[in-house]
Amino acid sequence: MNDIACRLYSAAQVRELDRRAIERHGIPGYTLMQRAGVACWAEIRRRWPAARKLAVVCGGGNNGGDGYVIARLARGAGLSVTLYAIGPAATAGDAVKARADWLSGGGAEALLLPGGLDGAEVVVDALFGIGLSRPLQGAAAAAVDAMRSARAAGAGVLAVDIPSGLDADNGRLWGAAVLADVTVSFIGRKLGLETGEGPACSGERVFDRLDLPPEAYEGIVPMATLLAQEQLAHWLPRRARGAHKGSHGHVLVVGGDAGMAGAALMAGRAALRSGAGLVTLATRAAHAAALTTAQPELMCHGIEEPALLRRLMERADVVAIGPGLGQDEWGLGLLAEVLDSSLPLVVDADALNLLAREPIRRDNWVLTPHPGEAARLLRCSTAEVQRERPVAAQALPARYGGVAVLKGAGSLVAGQRLRLCDRGNPGMAVGGMGDVLTGIIAALISQGLPLEEAAGAGVLLHALAGDLAAAGGERGLLPGDLIGQLRRVVNPVVA
Length: 495
Ligand SMILES: NC(=O)C1=CN([C@@H]2O[C@H](COP(=O)(O)OP(=O)(O)OC[C@H]3O[C@@H](n4cnc5c(N)ncnc54)[C@H](O)[C@@H]3O)[C@@H](O)[C@H]2O)[C@H](O)CC1
Ligand SMILES: [K+]
Known about the structure:
The structure is a single chain. By secondary structure, this protein is of the alpha/beta class. It contains 18 helices and 19 strands. The protein has a 12-stranded mixed β-sheet, with helices on both faces. The chain folds into 2 domains: 4-223, 3-Layer(aba) Sandwich (Rossmann fold), CATH 3.40.50; 229-489, UDP-N-acetylmuramoyl-L-alanine:D-glutamate ligase, CATH 3.40.1190.20. Helix 8 runs parallel beside helix 18. The longest helix has 19 residues, at 29-47. It has helices at residues 11-23, 29-47, 62-76, 93-104, 138-152, 198-202, 232-235, 261-273, 285-294, 309-314, 329-340, 349-357, 371-378, 382-387, 389-400, 433-446, 451-469, 479-489, and strands at residues 7-9, 53-58, 80-85, 111-112, 122-126, 156-160, 182-186, 189-190, 204-208, 224-226, 250-254, 278-283, 299-302, 318-321, 345-347, 365-367, 403-406, 412-414, 418-420. Helix 11 (329-340) links the parallel strand 14 (318-321) and strand 15. Residues 63, 125-129, 159-162, 164 line the site of potassium ion (K). The site of ligand LP7C6HRI has 26 residues, from helix 2 and helix 3.
């Protein structure tokens, strides 16, 4: 995927790109608008080739202007096109021109919503783009409802630039949002489409640079970059022919309190399947025999006295602590021992909850909270984390040091940079998937990847394996199914 298509921008940054295109590169705004319309119309023809009835819902700004361009192209191709508006006709400069061209070409005035988008086969959401700046109310909210109802009645929905109602910067909703089958986004990909509620509202994301020259993007540091599969070959090169089991590091997994042995086992299995040379589990004595039987490749020690952990840590290259650790004395004692070591750590689940009680900073660790654990670490509500995911993700290393993975739709990896994973699926929302991610990241650290790269590669591998495993259906997907796909994704360089 080309570099610019991997960059994720804020609304303000895209507006700056618009400005540069017009003022520095001499591309008139109306030309950009026409290119945007052409890109959307091409997607409509590709996705719904037989559609004959189009409804275009136009806002008063330039997003609406894109809608007028699309309407003119569709009408010119012989489709029946009905325009809808929520209030005064186009106000933004380029949109006024686009509306004038629509009318002078024989197009009818827009009908005022609310009202049903009667019988439309395809609905174009040109209500709001990056100009959405406050909660949807009144006619705007009614227009979104009408588009959601049309989709529920079987119409296809294409969102222009961003589904109306979604915040371009962080993927939160300004009320209900349009649910699109596809979103055609222009000039710069928006971070909000890829995280929070973005993936659920946007459908497939199609990006079109509108032929902006690459130099227009120089000097604008994207808010985040997409984790790209192409990077995996660099992170996971083919193995040296002379490798031996000590060449690929030793992972120590600490966890598995009473009733939760499986969490430690899944983390250990994932570490093995992600290429760690050796993996040891430190868990409750009562679990050791069963776990050894379950996976003989794992070394397994019953640790009831935390001090005994030191001997195991002497032989480890990285410690993953948290899977099934519990938050009682036993877990607390083990965490204290682990924090005393200077080894790189992957800290997850209950270890994060314990850490939230007594915060400390450290540079060589990767924290892997889901939104609820992140909320405890940041002392805020889960809703606040989800409303401002990019901000929350970056607040974690700012406060705790190291690298943080904020899990959830559009997982974010925050360290020196902010990266985003746009893979994965709702089948992965099941207990144990976090334990697997912990094992993967620990295994990559044990194989020599720096923390931030290990976290990014681990999140991407976890999602890619989850997508492969979900091919048989998302419901009923188990962590073991994902572990079963790891070997395929951790060998990007085919021998
Ligand atoms: N050269 C360009 O700028 C290009 C822009 N493209 C398209 O333009 C939109 C951005 O257009 P803009 O006029 O800045 O804003 P919107 O059309 O997104 O917003 C419309 C309008 O709505 C008002 N508004 C904001 N929030 C609300 C609300 N909750 N309720 C009611 N009204 C609201 C706000 O005042 C705005 O004026 C961009 O996304 C692209 O689609 C071209 O595609 C490329 C060239
Ligand atoms: K839109």
